[in-house]
Specification:
By secondary structure, the chain is α+β, with helices and mostly antiparallel strands. The protein folds into two domains: 285 residues, Zn peptidases (Aminopeptidase, 3-Layer(aba) Sandwich); 187 residues, Alpha-Beta Plaits (2-Layer Sandwich). The chain contains nine helices and 27 strands. Strand 20 and strand 21 form a beta hairpin. The chain is elongated.
């Protein structure tokens, strides 16, 4: 590879030249409400029409940028810049999103520019970074055309569309294609993520209550299981109107009989619950303290109260941590009420990100014990063990060194609670684009929350880092 400093300058000039096109293409993807909808799945669109449309648009961008594209049965796609060898280095990003939710100050399905930030669902997670990966490949398309020299390995930009709800897309991919020599996913933060906590999910069901006798007629909250619920509501039967309080509003549905309660919390990603306030927990405590439930309902609500009393495992009696991954997190994402044959049941989803100081089996046992103690039962369980890539690997060092060079700092790899595509590959890491060293103003929202936003300056710098990082990986793996 040519002089690293010269490569950085070339990449910076490229970013300056293409940046307005980058923003336009991010907006082109953000316009698609690409939430999974398997109820509308069909041939070629296994995750529903939204993810399919986002995948189609992403591949159209890749094609326009000079990559040879493949749509594999609607599960996943990729764009290739064919190198001298068929062995390949990959990026893997996703075009699906979590539901938009409420509380936005801008149109969530368009990119809004404000004071150096881009706002819109997916600008950070993960449509913006997906577009960066395609333009990083486009840099090498241009370079090849100008210099007539192909990359030593093929460069592949993989486009997923089921990351938020199951990662069936990459599982499908790996059943049909060989592993890359190395890959990174631009779906986390810098300097580099070399490890991810274990990820366990559960769903707990209440005992049935006769619908005609229920006092809590409906309980709903949250938008997805992997986010702290920012809002929750309940429809309750009572004679005297409940009094509103901080964070809880009351609406009369039927005077002297039915009232709707609404809780406003602070949402956020389940893996980083710092600063959040779970609206389901707020509402549950309100209903319990005011006696707005019967004995059967109380049992489930007390389970909820214990579970949601803390976001770090104390509620299930398992607050634990280790040196590499830090604290366990335990978040209640969604609650809902279902009626069947005249009986009501309430269901709560639980998202747990755990370090190596505990096992998935131990977590499962704790949740089952807590549920059973409140007359509830666990009806679903899924678990993925912690993932770790050695910080001493040459590829990891090359990417971290690239970040430090461009950023002008001296940082090392870190671990996170979030789960990314990286854990599915033999040799992979998560690499940017969010930079914790550059805090955003308060009006900029987090991923999965309202007003999701990202700094344009950070994205521009990330694109430079990705270009130079790919070049260094090619040198190492050739």
């Amino acid at each position: 590879m040519q002089d690293i400093e010269q490569m950085v300058k070339e990449a910076q000039a490229f970013v300056e030249d293409v940046w307005e096109d980058v923003v336009a293409d991010i907006d082109y993807l953000v316009q698609v409400d690409s939430v999974e909808d398997k109820g509308r799945a069909a041939d070629g669109m296994p995750f529903g029409p939204g993810p399919h449309e986002a995948l189609t648009r992403a591949l159209a961008v890749a094609d326009r940028l000079g990559l040879a594209t493949t749509d594999h049965e609607g599960y996943i796609g990729f764009g290739d810049l064919v190198g001298k060898a068929s062995r390949y280095v990959a990026t893997v990003a996703h075009a699906d999103i979590v539901p938009v939710g409420e509380g936005w100050d801008t149109d969530p399905l368009r990119v809004t520019r404000r004071d150096g930030y881009l706002l819109g669902r997916g600008v950070l997670d993960d449509k913006g970074p997906l577009v960066l990966s395609l333009y990083a490949a486009h840099f090498f398309v241009r370079r090849q055309a100008a210099m007539g020299e192909r990359l030593p390995l093929t460069l592949r930009c993989i486009v997923g569309c089921n990351e938020e709800t199951g990662m069936e897309d990459v599982e499908h991919y790996l059943r049909h294609y060989p592993q890359p020599e190395f890959c990174f996913t631009p779906d986390a933060c810098f300097p580099l993520i070399c490890g991810e906590k274990g990820h366990a999910t559960a769903r707990v069901c209440s005992a049935p209550v006769q619908a005609s006798e229920a006092r809590v007629v409906r309980l709903e909250g949250g938008t997805v299981s992997n986010a702290v619920a920012g809002q929750a509501s309940a429809l309750v039967r009572c004679v005297t109107p409940p009094s509103p309080c901080d964070g809880i509003t009351v609406e009369t549905v039927e005077e002297g009989r039915l009232y709707r309660l609404h809780a406003q919390g602070v949402g956020g990603h389940a893996s980083t619950p710092e600063g959040t306030q779970n609206a389901i927990g707020m509402l549950v405590r309100y209903v319990l303290e005011r006696g707005l439930c019967d004995a059967e309902e109380r049992a489930f609500l007390e389970f909820e109260r214990d579970l949601l009393s803390d976001a770090y495992g104390a509620g299930i009696g398992l607050a634990t941590r280790d040196e590499a991954f830090g604290r366990l997190t335990c978040v209640g994402g969604t609650v809902c009420t279902e009626e069947r044959d005249g009986w009501l049941r309430m269901y709560q989803t639980i998202d747990m990100r755990y370090p190596t100081s505990v096992t998935g089996d131990e977590l499962r046992a704790r949740v089952e014990t807590l549920a059973k103690g409140h007359g509830c039962r666990m009806v679903d369980w899924d678990d993925a063990a912690p993932f770790y890539q050695s910080p001493d690997d040459a590829e990891v060092r090359a990417l971290v060194d690239t970040y430090n060079l461009v950023r002008g700092c001296d940082e090392g790899p870190i671990t996170i609670g979030g789960g990314t595509y990286a854990r599915h590959f033999a040799k992979a890491v998560a690499f940017g684009p969010d930079d914790p060293s550059c805090p955003a103003p308060g009006w900029v929202g987090q991923e999965h929350g309202p007003n999701e936003g990202v700094s344009e300056a950070e994205l521009r710098r990330a694109l430079v880092i990705y270009i130079v990082g790919i070049a260094r990986l090619m040198d190492i793996l050739a």
